Amino acid sequence: MDTGEVLASLGVEGAAAAAHALSLPAEAYGNDAQLEVMWAMKAYNHAEVYFNLISSVDPKFLKLTKTDDVIYSKFREDFPDFNIKILDPELLKSAEAKEKWRPFCNHFEGLVEDFNYGTLLRLDCEKDYTEENTIFATRIQFFAIEIARNREGYNDAVHNASVKAKQQKKEQS
C-alpha cells in the first residue's frame, strides 16, 4: 500500500491526528510501532519529493532552506574533505563520527526548523533511494550534504539522466 492510500485510509480526522502526533517531541512516546510507520512514511515522502525535484530542476539552482549559504559554509568549514559523492555510513554513524557531527548539528538549533528530525539520505548521489542506497540521518545532515551535492555538481547525474529519459520518451512518441 502506498503512503497516499495509507493516509487516505485514515480519513480527515485520522490524518490530522497523525500530523499532530508527528509534531510532538520524541520523549512523549515509547516504542510505538504505528508511530514508527508514520515517521517512516513521512521520511519516505520527503525523499520522494526531493528526488523528483532534483530530477526536474537543475540542482545548482535549488534552494532547500533560507540558510543554505550558512549551512554550506559551516559544513565545508567543519568537513572540508568529506566525500559527498558516495557516503561512508561509518562517517555518519560511528561513535567517533557522531561526536564530530554533534556540534555541527547543534549549531543549527533554532536556525533550521526540525534540524534534528530523521530523514533519508542517499549513499551514492548518482542513484535513487533504494534500501541498499539509503541511510537514516538527521535533517541538518541531509541539508548539508545535499546542498553541497547540488552546489558542487554531484546531483547533476540524476538531473541529466532524467532529462535524457524524458528526451528519449519524447522522441519515441
TrEMBL record:
It holds the Pfam family PBDC1. Coiled coil: none annotated. GO terms for cellular component: cytoplasm. InterPro entries: PBDC1-like_dom_sf (IPR023139), PBDC1_metazoa/fungi (IPR008476), Polysacc_synth_dom (IPR021148). It comes from the Eukaryota. Residues 35-159 form the Polysaccharide biosynthesis domain. This is Polysaccharide biosynthesis domain-containing protein. It comes from Pangasianodon hypophthalmus. The lineage of its organism: Eukaryota, Metazoa, Chordata, Craniata, Vertebrata.
